[in-house]
Specification:
The protein is α+β, with helices and mostly antiparallel strands. It has one domain. The protein contains four helices and 18 strands.
Length: about 260
């Protein structure tokens, strides 16, 4: 009888122990993370500041390439969408920027990667995001979330009746036939808040046991595709149609998937 009781007791302990181990594994496997890299390029070349790039008869030399990425979401193989909370990220390669009439200087920065944390463990097939800042925050800069801030030189007071965010900015010089002009191509305004949808070449499994990676190409040349930058070297809200064309380029042409793993 004592022997039978001992066997039963040991069995209960083993079952309880296994159950606890299973619970731990289950808890560990509920969330993972992924790093998304926006690898800047100009056509087939790696993007860099203060370097000449040729496109047709024009030569470009850039001092900044900056844009807001917001509303990031991953779509699993069942078509279910997981939205990353507070996903407002400033991707950029820029020299130092004078802010608030020179009262503050935003330092030279290169940032091409963001980390998505707390992603449910699953198989994912698509990434979605928008370029710019949605109207809730664009119309009221006193509201802040994610990386939104007025101290990075990505706001403009002249586009709307109140200060609003600059969604994207490309700056530098463009030269054609020996004549150089300052270049500043910016997008903004709520109507130009555009979405990007990119399918992965293969299923991406996000797990708690590995750091998943998504590499996207961000092609600066595609941002100005179809725009006569010699005739229009400065694009802002005063050139609404061109600004919208550039915003559409960001939505449909600039970003492609290089790899996922």
């Amino acid at each position: 009888m004592k022997r039978l009781f001992s066997i039963i007791l040991v069995s209960i302990i083993l079952i309880t122990s296994c159950s606890k181990d299973d619970d731990k594994i289950s808890q560990l496997e509920t969330e993972g993370k992924a790093t998304v890299t926006f690898d800047a390029a100009f056509g087939t070349q790696d993007f860099a500041l203060n370097k000449d790039f040729t496109s047709g008869t024009k030569t470009f030399n850039f001092t900044k390439f900056r844009y807001w990425v917001s509303g990031v979401a991953l779509v699993n193989s069942k078509g279910e969408e997981y939205k990353i909370p507070g996903s407002y990220f400033l991707l950029e390669e820029t020299g130092s920027v004078a802010v608030q009439d020179g009262a503050f200087t935003y330092p030279a920065t290169k940032r091409e990667s963001i980390e998505l944390k707390g992603v449910p463990v699953d198989d994912y097939k698509t990434i979605k995001f928008s370029i710019g800042v949605d109207s809730k925050y664009n119309d009221n800069l006193s509201l802040q979330t994610g990386e939104l801030s007025q101290l990075n030189g990505m706001t403009n007071v002249s586009w709307m009746w109140m200060t609003s965010y600059i969604f994207s900015a490309i700056g530098g010089k463009v030269t054609q036939a020996g004549t150089a002009q300052n270049l500043l191509i910016e997008t903004g305004l709520n109507s130009n808040y555009k979405s990007v949808v990119l399918d992965f070449p293969s299923v991406l499994h996000i797990s708690s046991t590995k750091d998943s990676k998504i590499v996207l190409k961000a092609d600066v040349e595609k941002a100005i595709d179809g725009v006569d930058v010699v005739a229009n070297p400065v694009v802002g809200a005063s050139k609404a149609a061109i600004m919208t064309a550039v915003a559409t380029n960001y939505s449909t042409k600039v970003f492609t998937v290089s790899s996922v793993n």
